[in-house]
Amino acid sequence: MSLTITKAGLLDTIQDEGRFGFQAAGINPGGAMDVFSARLANCLLAKPMNAAVIEMHFPAPVIRFNEAAIVCITGANFSPTINEKEIQINRPLLINKGTIIRFKKVLSGARSYLSVLNNFTVANWLNSYSTNLKAAAGGLHGGPMKSGDIIPFETIGELHVYLKEEPFKILSWFAKPEEIPVANKIEVIKGNEWDWLDIKSQQTFLKSSFTITKVADRMGYRLSGSAMHLFEQKQLVSSSVTFGTLQLLPSGQLIVLMADHQTIGGYPRVAHVISAHLPMLAQSKPNDTFSFAFTDVNSAEQMLLQQFNYLQQVQYAAGFKIEKILQ
Questions:
Q1: pLDDT tens digit string along 256-309?
Q2: In this structure, is residue 305 part of a structural domain?
Q3: pLDDT digits (tens, 9 = 90+) for 137-148
Q4: CA atoms within 13 A on the CB side of 241
């Protein structure tokens, strides 16, 4: 069983939650930019949260399913259609052999995720299916999907018997992921070098807005805002960084590191975006503007736990529905 990328999109890759435990060797975790949406796509199909999905940017790919499958699309709304008929995101679909999924225009967000009930059979590198673009490893041939690529997936029953001649069938359950923040304020905790900023710059960080520039990709977003400065010029020995680390560049501007960040950096780490707000950041685009606010670790953990509990509820509920279909 398989699907075919009949027309490649801007950047389509296989991703999961990432590979961990290898940063000491210089290998970054990578993984989905919007982990919440990737997990939600899997949970709506009662799959493990860390199962591999296809991460898509717009223009998104044209996908043909060579066998019947149950699928779900989450994250950004790229106006998906099946055989030219509009479909909803955050809702599982049973689709027939020969079905073609297209994405027409961007209604919201920056990254969309496609999960298939049948697990993708692609390369596992260092305990993860995520595509590492720099190392050209993992996922499908270690890079973005190309037109004509065939992605195999496991066989699960004879799903086409539920469809007869219909191209697709909308299944009865869905999700409203309200746990993803929609405000334009990103919550952070103080970084190791926060105290290196002078008082005026600390106030600027908390009271000003910042805009994502055109220099923005899976590795990091450069931000534009009022310049900030250090009390005194210091040299920082390259130290560990992570997804969401905010570094102050020599220009006085900020960069926020994203999923494909390097493992260490030499710029001051003034703050870190909390994990629960990374999905909102991942769905932001150039010219989007937001501000920062401090929170504490306990509050950050509670927000993340709330998101996780929601996903578990979706996963359990979907499990009963999927079980009935596969009986």
A1: 999 999 999 999 999 999 999 999 999 999 999 999 999 999 999 999 999 999
A2: no
A3: 999 999 999 999
A4: 32
CATH no. for residue 280? 2.40.100.10
Question: Structure tokens of 90?
Answer: 């955050």
The token duo for 39 is 């997990």
Whether residue 103 sits in one domain with residue 30? yes
Position 226 scores a pLDDT of 96
H-only helix segments in the chain: 35-43, 199-207, 278-282, 297-326
Residue with tokens 């049948």: 118
What is the Cα–Cα distance from 128 to 106, expressed in whole angstroms?
30
How far is it, in rounded angstroms, from Cα 274 to Cα 304?
Answer: 9
Burial track 78-113 (b if 16+ CB lie within 10 A, e otherwise): bbbebeeeebebbbbbbbbeebbbbbeebeebbbbb
The pair phi, psi for residue 218, each rounded to 5°, is: -65, -15
Angular region, 64: left φ>0, alpha ψ -120 to 50, beta rest: beta
Residue 44 CA to residue 111 CA, distance in Å, equals 18
DSSP codes joined into one string, 195-212? GGB-HHHHHHHHHSEEEE
Domain carrying residue 159: 2-179
Q: Are residues 49 and 169 both part of a single domain?
A: yes
**Residue matched to tokens 């191209």:** 167
